[in-house]
Design brief:
Blueprint lengths: L1 H19 L11 E2 L5 E3 L3 H14 L4 E9 L2 E8 L6 E9 L2 E8 L4
């Protein structure tokens, strides 16, 4: 029982952290949250990452782009923030099973 409660607590904290990491970065047109709360882009991986790269550049947010990489049918591009003032540490764009999903990785709290 304690183990289940601890697991549920950890999951709630993680989702709260992800929600607070939602950025003020403009997302590609047509991007929406699905029933699971994921940000789903209507564009493919390349169009989505190109859009985000241009938006980050336009806003003057320095990032390091890693990828695209492909492993077992999953394509991934990461934008790692080089600016300590962003509420997110990285943006991950993943494409699998014909769906492009955008994740914002929150910065660790002090």
């Amino acid at each position: 029982m304690r183990r289940c409660f601890r697991t549920v607590t950890i999951v709630i904290i993680l989702f709260a952290g992800l929600a607070s990491a939602d950025p003020d970065v403009k997302l590609p047109p047509g991007t929406r949250k699905n029933d699971a709360g994921e940000l789903v882009s209507t564009r493919g991986l390349r169009d989505t990452t190109d859009f985000l790269a241009k938006e980050l550049d336009r806003r003057g947010i320095a990032v390091t782009q890693i990828g695209p990489t492909r492993t077992r049918g999953v394509e991934l591009v990461r934008f790692v923030s080089q600016v300590p003032s962003t509420p997110w540490l990285a943006i991950h764009v993943m494409r699998t099973n014909g769906k492009t999903v955008i994740f914002f990785v929150p910065r660790g709290g002090s």
